[in-house]
Structure formats: C-alpha cells, structure tokens
Amino acid sequence: MKQLIKNILIVEDNEDYQIIIENFLRLTNFEIDKIDRAIRLTETLELVKKTPYDLIFLDIRLPDNTEITSISKILSINNDIPIIVLTGMDQFEISFEAIKLGAQDYLIKGEFDEVILEKSIIHSIERKKILNDLKDFNKKLDQKVRERTELVEGALDDLRMEINRRELVERDLISARKEIQDLYRNEKESNELRSNFITNISHQYRSPLQVIMTSSYLIEALYGNEDEKLNKFLNNIRSSVKNMIDTLDDILTIDQSGFKTEHTEYEIDACREIIGVIEDLKNINKSNDRIFCDLPEKAFIKNFDQHFSHILLNLLSNALKYSENDTKVNVVGEIIEEKIKIRIIDNGIGIPEDQLNMVFVDFFRARNSINIPGSGLGLSLVNRLVKEIDGDISVDSKEGKGTTCSLIFPLVR
Predict the structure, then answer these.
(1) How far is the C-alpha of 263 from the C-alpha of 387, rounded, in Å?
(2) What is the mean pLDDT of residues 288-316?
(3) pTM of the entire structure?
C-alpha cells in the first residue's frame, strides 16, 4: 500500500527540471494528490500561505532570490513543512548551511533517481516529524519548567514572607520578654518594698501591743484580786490586743504567701499534723478539749513552709470562736480516690446564705459576727494557702446551725 502525500510544491526556475522531478515522483511508492510548481520566491511564499504542503523541493538560486535565506522565509510562514534543497555540484557548502537553517535534506541535480528521491523524501518527512515532536516536547517541557519555576518562586516568596514574619515575631518576642523582665523586676522591687513596709509596721505595732498585754497582767497581779470590775476591763484589753496581734499575723502571712516566689516544699502526714495542731490549741486553752477527731491512720500530702498548720489553726480557731463553749467541733478525715478530704464541723452561729459567696473576700465579715472579734482575713488567707499546696476548699453553712469547712488535698504516696 502506497503512502499518501497530499500536496507537494516544486520550486525550480528550470521548467525541464521541474518535469524530471515530477516524473521521478510518479515512479515512487507514494500516492500524490497534487503537485504545484513555482519559479520565484514571491510566488512560493504566496502558495505556502494558502496551502499546507506536505513537502517542498527548493532550488536555492531563484530569479528573485539567490540567497539561502529563502528557507527561513518559507519556514517563517509554516515551520512544519519538510524542505529538500536542490543544489548543483558546486554548492556543497551551501547545502550543509541550508540544513542548518531548517532544510531536511539536499539532492544534487542530475545525481539522483526515483530510488534516491524516495529515500530522501522518507528521511525528510520522518526527520521533520521527529524534529516537530522534539519541538513540541521541548515546548511542553519549557512550559512545565516555567510552571515549576513559578511554583518554586512562589514558594520562595512565601518562605521569604514567613522568614520576615518570624523575624518580626522574634523581635516582638524579644521586646516583650524585655518588657516582662522589666515589669517583673519593678514588681519584685515594689513587692519587696511593700513587704518590708508591712513587716516594719507590724513590728512597730507588735512591740507596744506586747507591752500593753504584759502591763495588763502586771496590773491584774497587783490589783486584780481586790477589784472585779478592773479584772473585767483588763480581760477586754487583753482580748482586743490579742485580736490586733492575730490580725497583724494574718496580714504578714498573706503578704508572705502572695509575694514569696520560693517555698520550702516537703511531705507531711496530714493526720499527724491535725492531731499536733489540736494539742497546741489545748495547751493554749483547756476549753479547747471539745475538739474531736475521726481520721485515717496516715495520709501524706505536699506542704509549703507551715501552710497546712496555718490552715488548720485558722479553721479550728474559727470553729471554736463562733460556737458556744458547750458544743463540739468535729474533725473528720477520709481517703477518697487518692485524695484526703478533711471536714471541720461546728454547731456555731453559721453564715447567712446570701453572704456565703463572700467568705473568701479580704476583710469580709458576716453580719451576724460583727460583735465577735475578728479581722475578716482568716478564710481569705486559708483559701490562698490551700491553693498553693494544690488543695481545694469549700464552705457549707446555715445561719444558726453551724458551718462545715471541707478541705481536699491530693495524696503524694
């Protein structure tokens, strides 16, 4: 089966040689629909514009163009057409140059027959096809390279933006860190000044209060046996002095708790500590033997400084102070899911229900406790100390029936 070649153009100013080439074409194994002829380059260019030729035979030397540039002019119109250059014996160098400019092959006039012509046509068409495929491949490759380059450039732009953003964030962080350090240093200095001031004021107040307390005992020893009214006044003085000293102690403890950044941490047996605090209270006042305990054998918890003993002393003192002398104060402890729950239960005056949410506010005192000495700092202090040793506290109370303070601390063993 013959290979189809639809349109062939023969560009040759020698009409006889046009006929020779056409006759050779008829003898090949190609089926050719149409063969056009042209003598001049201008005519050739017009035909190329109108017809998509499958092959062109081109004589380089034409009446209107003797330069090899005719190849470039044709290919500028249609770059897909295979061109076979027709040359003379003396035009070898020009033939090679023509191939460099885009021709696919060359034939020396008078030196070829239909067999050589057929091979040249096959070679030229295949070579042009390969070159066109390579061109398309390079074009697609260039497109992919451009797309990838754009992606890479976009990624690089994003990376540069991210680097700039991080540099800005880093500068902001450094600036913020410096501001925080300055604030911390200023706050630390301010806290130290405040703490020193509170300590000095407390010390200055404590000394005259101790003098007043001592003087009251001396007066009682000298004159108390003879004057019952005097003894009553002296007791009131000592009670007021003790209340002021307790208030100063609470203020000092709150100050140390709020602004001390380093604590001595250790483990204690909470049950043993509770019994010790109760014994201390009994030694201070024999009436404190109305405290009763129901505790586990052992329960080890974390403690800072003397936090736990401060907590117990404050809560037990409140329970005794706000209940009648003939009532009991119960301390109940139980282990619940790796925690110890401690309840301090009294049957005292209780706290009004509408004021329960205020019990941990500094200087708060319930309206039914106004006539009982106190500073309003006790539960506020206790709440802070409990939180510092990872505990929790809650207060349940009914006015006229009593109060239950519940403490929960995680066990450490």
Answers:
(1) 14
(2) 88
(3) 0.47
